[in-house]
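Incident log, structure service

09:12 report received: a user says their structure output differs between two submissions of the same chain.
09:20 pulled the input from the user's history:
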Amino acid sequence: MSMSLADARYHLDRVTGLIRRSLSSLHTRGWRATLHRIGVHLRRQPPPRREPLFVPAATPFAPFAVPASERPQASIVIPVYNQCRHTLACLRALAAYPPAAACEVLVIDDGSSDETAQWLPQVEGLRYHVREQNGGFIAACNDGLRLARGDYVVLLNNDTVPQPGWLDALLDTFASVPDAGLVGAQLLYPDGRLQESGGVVFADGSCWSYGRFESAEDPRYASLRDADYCSGAALAIPRALFAGLGGFDTRYAPAYYEDTDLAFQVRASGRRVLVQPASRVVHDEGTSNGTDTNSGVKAWQVRNRQVFADKWRDALARQLPVGSVPTPARLHRGQRQVLIVDEVVPQPDRDSASLRQFNLIRMLLAGGAHVVFLPTRGLHGGAASEALQALGVEVWHAPFLGGVGRWLRTHGHRFHVAMLVRHHVARECLPLLRRHAQQARIVFDTVDLHYLRERRGAELAGDPRLLRAAERTRASELAVMAATDVTLLVSAAEKKQLAVDAPRVEVELLSNLHEVAGHGRDWAQRHDLVFVGGFRHPPNLDAMQWFIGEVFPLVRARLPDIRFHCIGADVPDGLQALAATRPGVQVHGYVPDVVPWMEGCRIAVAPLRFGAGVKGKVNLSMAHGQPVVATACAVEGMYLRDGQDVLVADDAEAFADAVVRLHDDEALWRQLSGNGLHNIARHFSMDAARDTVARVFLS
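09:34 re-ran on a clean worker, output below:
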């Protein structure tokens, strides 16, 4: 199949798949919701624009204050030599947007002859230190290290304007990456173009500012990433580590290559060197020493390159060859590269499938893989995309994506594993992957068996048209399974079903992935009932219509003070209207953090009358020690025993009886709470999935 035919087939499959899913949606969601869904699929949106760069006003000097703490977490060390107006702009930026972390600001004056000595002592909170004689950048920084009191030393050039949040993003990286040893900021030109998102060192010791003159939002440069080095213009390092390494190596005095050498020393000590694009710093490159390597201090750059190359000869043998152009494929050449293709980035605060995918990504990263996420709609997911980038995931989006086919032609060759999520995405993208990523193991993640869920919904509704649509979905899903290398299922019940429907398909079980939060509050401290689930998912809407309409009034008649909390995005007007007629029902809609309800409500309900897969809402509650009353459908394939781990009921009266019984029986409540936690740890934790993830993705 030629490239053009593969692309044409992708677009044809995408359009026909959208039409088929839209016709099915008309029956389950109605025409308004269906039209909205079609619009979302077809709309091409630009990525969100970052906040404009902050530039302090260039006003005449007047005294002001900078952040100051007697017990700083970070010591910001700013070496200066003249250029006082640049120093003022840097300090004014720190004053305008103080970091959340406790910090101190030290200016190390290396013998300035301008207004520096006149103005800076008037800046309140500033620790101003004047060196006895000019010694250059390295000497000034090493003085700053000796004077610093913080847990971290943060080096900052005086010709920089740090942007709001810059320091906290650097420090947060050390908290999220335990083996981080040095973290650098993303450096920008004053016009907003990228100056450097980490540096690349070639085999001869020469360097490359990665991303120079490109867009700072380009996915190649916008995620947390290991770097060969980070510029000393803006970097953070634990003070104890910096001191243990002896500060900057003085053989590079007065300046140049000391930051590159420091990065290699940090790596040799067993720690990582990372660039954090969430930390943005504007750098007026060349203010201090110019850019001409033939004269002045800048000439030391040429001399020190040879010093560096001699010192790190063995390590440089593993670097990229001179003359090669750094690309994501080359920079991650030592890692197993995993591609995930889905319609949109996961939103773990909105649905259980997203939480499972997000935690799988965390496991892949912990296993040493480099993960790339390709959303076929091309949309930037806002905070959801940024959350992945903060983990180190390379997240693509418009306008940089330029089409799935074109992107795969460029990048497909670098992947060891490609995971296609949901059958319609897999059906559309599989021909492109088979052509452009022939070397990759292709994994199909069902999320759940869609045809099983659709069939059950059709049977409950008694709708022959929905039943025929379910059979078409079945044919599509089974065809994708036959054409891919491995199929991921989320429940043992689905695995048993597939053994009948497609016995030759290679299957792996990768269920929901949860962190065990613990028991939380005890029985007496908890009150009320809760349900969590988004309402774009038809089983959730049906469940709430049934529970609020038929079950809860029976519960309320026996427990007149009890309240029911319904949580989930996209609540339809009809459900809101129904809830308004039922005393004690509170419809909260989307909430960004459901933990207060998981820890504060006594019982979770899962009244699903149809569906498939493993129900994240059940696992989420049990992971917080919250017992569950559920239908048999809701706990299918979850290793749960009625009366020991969960209470199961399928008709309204029995469901209400179970809720009241569990609400009033403290001993039963404690038994279900403890057994539910044990079930999560055994079957649905990340530890339980570790071997499967290693087998499918990392070997």
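09:41 both user submissions now match this output. Likely a transient worker issue. Closing.
09:42 reviewer note: Residues 3-29 form the longest helix (27 residues). The mean pLDDT is 91.
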